[in-house]
Design a protein that fits this description.
- The chain is mostly beta strands.
- The chain has a single domain, classed as Beta-galactosidase, Chain A, domain 5.
- 10% of the residues lie in helices and 41% in strands.
- It is built from 3 helices and 21 strands.
- The strands form 2 sheets. Strands 1, 2, 3, 4, 5, 10, 12, 15, 18, 19 and 20 form an 11-stranded antiparallel sheet that branches. Strands 6-7-8-9-21-17-16-11-14-13 form a 10-stranded antiparallel sheet, with helices on one face.
- The longest helix has 16 residues.
- The chain is globular, with a radius of gyration of 21 Å.
């Protein structure tokens, strides 16, 4: 009898914690990593943990009970306040082009949030040093591993400013990022240039973490590395991926051929060091009048997969998923 009672109690708790299929559960005042006021979105398949003591920031994304595909800087977890910029890890919103100190305005204070039953909206107070307000709206699909993130920068100054929204996803170490190159077209049928590639002063194209393929560029995160690497590309195909221990993170985003992008025309960038790797996307560079805003949308997907370093594997595993999600390319 005691055994039966225990099993029944366990089942009741399980039904309470895990949402039904087609339902998104919001959990408030959720403690995570030393922060007491996190919010969790959970559809029974995947979950996101969002900080509200600092931010706006997504600190966890992964399968329920599975690994976090996002990086967590353990020595910074739970910290709040102060004028020092901290990465914390996870996913954040910046404004480009990168400049010190403007871009590095700290997000160490609390953010407001609201939930309408479908979308979680995060609102950061106006940055004192820039006059810019940041918002992120997060919508988890009730029945799939799909998340929509709308990033918004608002000019609260009394004068116009030029900027671009910059969405940076800091991935957990040990995986490999994959970026598409523009389709191959033979000479002399196509004479115009393609595949703009931007290098930084510290970019070393001979570094063994790079895999320069015919159709794809791959970058491995190596905790044993001692240097940093970064590139930017004009990515008209609108996708980037990260593979980590059987989980494949796919990011979809838009490209406007009429727009101007920072860093010599980059809408996709990646950076790595011994601790992490970033999969970054950027919106168009715009002149924002007082009160105007600029939006940038990403779509996230998570899959179980096996992927080796060959381009054949990329085409066999990732490309079908890209085709399935083409409708989400803004």
């Amino acid at each position: 009898m005691l055994k039966h009672s225990f099993i029944l109690g366990w089942i009741v708790v399980l039904v309470f914690v895990v949402p039904s299929v087609g339902q998104v559960q919001l959990q408030e005042k959720f403690s995570y990593g030393g922060w007491s006021n996190c919010v969790r979105l959970n559809n029974g398949k995947v979950e996101l943990v969002i900080t509200t003591d600092v931010g706006p920031r997504v600190i966890r994304f992964g399968y329920v009970g599975g690994q976090n595909v996002l990086k967590e800087f353990t020595e910074q977890m739970g910290k709040t306040g102060g004028d020092e910029w901290r990465s914390y890890g996870g996913h954040r919103l910046w404004h480009a082009p990168e400049a010190m100190p403007r871009t590095y305005a700290p997000d160490n204070g609390p953010v407001k949030y609201s939930w309408n039953g479908k979308t979680l909206k995060l609102v950061q107070p106006v940055e004192a040093t820039t006059g810019i307000a940041k918002e992120i709206e997060i919508t988890l699909d009730p029945a799939s591993d799909h998340v929509t993130l709308l990033h918004r920068l608002i000019n609260k100054n009394l004068w116009a400013i030029e900027l671009a929204p910059w969405a940076l996803t800091v991935m957990a170490p040990g995986g490999r990022a994959v970026f598409p190159q523009e389709p191959y077209r033979p000479h002399p049928e196509y004479l115009a240039p393609a595949r703009p590639l931007t290098l930084w002063h510290y970019t070393d194209m001979k570094d063994p973490r790079w895999i320069w393929g015919t159709k794809y560029i791959q970058l491995k995160q190596d905790p044993k590395a001692t240097t940093k690497q970064k590139i930017g590309i004009m990515n008209t195909l609108g996708w980037a991926a990260y593979f980590l221990n059987g989980d494949l993170f796919l990011k979809r985003f838009g490209f406007d051929p009429k727009a101007t992008y920072v860093d010599f025309g980059c809408n996709t960038e990646t950076y790595t060091d011994p601790e992490m790797i970033e999969v970054e996307t950027l919106g168009a560079l715009k002149q924002l009048q007082p009160g105007d805003h600029s939006d940038h949308v990403e779509h996230w997907f998570l899959y179980r997969a096996q992927l080796d370093e060959s381009e054949t594997s990329v085409e066999r595993v990732i490309l079908p998923l890209v085709r399935q999600t083409d409708k989400y390319k803004p």
